[in-house]
Amino acid sequence: MPFAVVMSLTIVAERLESVTFATKFADRKPFGALSSPRDRPESLTARSSVTKRWPNFFQYPCRDDCRTRRAAAEKKDVCLMSRVCELTGKAVMTGNTVSHANNKSRRRYLPNLLNVTLMSDVLGQSFKLRVSANGLRSVEHRGGLDAFLVKASADELSLRARILKRKIAQKIEAAAVAA
C-alpha cells in the first residue's frame, strides 16, 4: 500500500481518536481500487464500528435555548459562514426557476453581500462587516453606521453588530452625561 494512503488513514484515525482504524485497514487496497462491496471496510458501510466525534461547533450547547444553528453559534460565540447580511438580516431565499414550458426546478436566491469597512464616528474606529448592497444603501441613507445602528432593531442585527450598537449607545450616553 502506498505510504500516502497509510499516512492519510493515520491522520483520519487521529482525528477520530481511534488508533485501531489505521491498523485495521493498513493491509487493504486503496479505496479507489475496491472491486466489490465485500472488499469495502466497515467504515464505508451503514454499520460502522468506528464512532465519529464531531467538533464542538457542530453540537448544540442546549436544546432548550438554541433552536437553530445560528442561535447556538451566537451563544457559543462561533462565526458561521452563512450568507446573511450583518445589518439588515437579509438571507438566502428559495424559489423556482420556471422554464418556457412551465417546468419548475428549485433554486436559491442569494443576497448581494459585500465585505465592507465602515467607519464609526462616535467610536473613532473602522469595522469590517459583511453587508448586502441594500444594507449599504440604507447605512448611507440614514447618515452613517452610528445612525443606522441606533435606529435598527436588535432582532435583525448579527451578534457583532449588536455589540457595536451597545458600545455606540454607551458612548452617546456618556457624552450626554458629560455635557
Automatic annotation (TrEMBL):
Organism listed in the record: Kaistia dalseonensis
InterPro entries: Ribosomal_bL28, Ribosomal_bL28/bL31-like_sf, Ribosomal_bL28_bact-type, Ribosomal_bL28_sf
UniProt similarity note: Belongs to the bacterial ribosomal protein bL28 family.
GO cellular component: ribosome
Pfam families registered for this protein in UniProt: Ribosomal_L28 (PF00830)
PANTHER family associated with the record: 39S RIBOSOMAL PROTEIN L28, MITOCHONDRIAL, LARGE RIBOSOMAL SUBUNIT PROTEIN BL28M
Gene3D superfamilies: Ribosomal protein L28/L24
Membrane-spanning parts: none
Name the UniProt record assigns to this protein: Large ribosomal subunit protein bL28
Keywords, in A-Z order: Ribonucleoprotein, Ribosomal protein
Signal peptide: none
HAMAP family xrefs: Ribosomal_bL28
Higher taxonomy: Bacteria, Pseudomonadati, Pseudomonadota, Alphaproteobacteria, Hyphomicrobiales
